[in-house]
Design goal:
The complex is a heterodimer. By secondary structure, chain A is mainly beta. Chain A has no helices and 15 strands. Chain A has a five-stranded antiparallel β-sheet, with no helix packed on it. Chain A starts with a strand and ends with a strand. The relative contact order of chain A is 0.17. Chain B is mainly beta. Helices cover about 15% and strands about 45% of the residues of chain B. Chain B has one helix and five strands, in the order βββαββ. Chain B has a three-stranded mixed β-sheet. In chain B, a hairpin with a 2-residue loop joins strand 1 and strand 2. Classes of the chains: A mainly beta, B mainly beta. Chains A and B meet through strand 13, strand 14 and strand 15 of A and strand 3, helix 1, strand 4 and strand 5 of B. Strand 13 of chain A pairs antiparallel with strand 5 of chain B, so a sheet runs across the interface.
Chain lengths: ~160, ~40
């Protein structure tokens, strides 16, 4: 079981990962309200078959005035046909927080929250972490400061990183 | 504090240093920085 922590300043998300199941255990905003509910972050049945997913890669793209962070997964279940993949895309737009999910059978989009936790102004930092290494995505929105001090929460204190 | 430029760590950093925080710069508004963090060696 692992976990990822994403966020910056007053916005903080904690997610647990176990056997391909991902659960958001905490999502707090500037008012310290916890928006997370005790439920799996992703549950997907394909043709009646329950699925579990393993993260393969993370990519970043900027277009149409938004930053898109795409998490690509492959299925853990051998019952699924080969080549099936799942892409979860976080679309980050000034003034709006939303998450869209795409998979092979067609698109479905749902809104994570109608309220932008950083009001389209402050920095946003995401730290997806998997198997001892990870990424840091730092997005400067309309903040005046051109630099920010960031902590990485998934690292081992005794290990050197590059 | 560890400086990051162009999405890369300037030098190796320990986990303790990364936990304490380092500086990420983005010269313009609505820009982004990406950093891949992997164990050295």
């Amino acid at each position: 079981m692992g976990s990822t922590r994403q966020g910056f300043a007053a916005v903080h998300m904690v997610r647990s990962i176990s056997d391909g199941s991902v659960e958001t255990t905490s999502l707090t905003g500037p008012d310290r309200k916890d928006w997370a509910q005790p439920a799996a972050d992703l549950t997907l049945n394909l043709n009646g078959v329950p699925t579990g997913w393993s993260l393969q890669s993370v990519t970043l793209a900027v277009h149409a005035g938004a930053v898109h962070v795409a998490f690509d997964y492959v299925p853990l279940s051998a019952k699924l046909p080969s080549g099936v993949t799942l892409t979860r895309t976080f679309a980050l737009k000034p003034g709006r927080a939303a998450m869209s999910v795409r998979h092979v059978s067609g698109p479905m989009v749902y809104e994570l929250t109608g309220r932008d936790p950083v009001a389209g102004k402050d920095w946003l930092v995401l730290e997806p972490w998997h198997s001892g290494s990870g990424y840091l995505f730092a997005f400067r929105q309309d903040a005046k400061a051109g630099a920010i001090k960031v902590r990485i929460l998934g690292v081992n204190p005794a290990t050197s990183y590059t | 504090m560890i400086d990051v430029r162009n999405g890369q760590l300037v030098a190796h950093a320990t986990g303790t240093q990364l936990r304490n925080g380092f500086t990420v710069t983005a010269p313009t508004k609505y820009s982004a920085r990406v950093l891949r963090v992997v164990p050295a060696g």
